[in-house]
Amino acid sequence: MLVPAQVWTKAASNAASAVLLDDELAEGHTSLAHVKATQDWDWHGAELEYRRAIALDPRLATAHHWYSVSCLVPLGRLDDALQEVQFAQTLDPVSKIISRDTARVYYYRREFEAALEECDRTIERDPYFSGAYWILGLVQEQLGDFRESAAAFQRGIQLLPEHLLMRAGLGRLFALSGKPAKAKQVLREMKDISSKRYLCPFEPAMIRLALGELDAAFECLDKAKEERCFDLISLNADPRFDGVRTDPRLRSIANEMGLI
User: Fold this and answer.
1) Is the N or the C terminus of the chain less surrounded, counting Cβ atoms within 10 Å?
2) pTM
3) Model confidence over 147-165: pLDDT tens digits?
């Protein structure tokens, strides 16, 4: 099973080749920017590539979308991130993924009611889009409505039974609601699934944090850092880390990623 860093090595090569073959190709610069951000943690280089892509094709929705979530959010520039993802949405109003990530940016901004409304709009357009239930579950968790949060994750699992993000969200809810045995059962289930497919260490880390198992959580996060797990780039914005903001281990990870 390949970890993200191994997968993205080939993506980086392809993106670089595309730019070398045609420096005027906005899509090539967008892909290269995404790799620089998510795998190299070269935030300055990523921003330059995104800006180059947008200058070449200002109406390329993907460039604005990825610039928002993979560069501006990690850098904590959440006003700019919201502006970019909203503009992407005007360019591609039927994109479910852009709509989901608009809700995601609201979530990072702690504008949970706005995030909830965006989730509802996304689900209204396509009630079978599992990604919307994932962010909906996270938003409802932050609002303290664990019942609705669990319902969102369970609906996502119904749609995609082996969706590890959904299972992790549900396991975290069990931990937060005083059901550690159920949370640990989810961890065991995820481990079983990981014997057949890749499991990002970031997901069990979120459950471990909620259980208060900080040493185990940071072991997972260190592994997520080594494997370049995508969700880790948002650690400075993600509300799920608010309880450990002062932990030097979190600051160390952020520092290694060039985020402080």
Assistant:
1) N
2) 0.91
3) 999 999 999 999 998 788 9
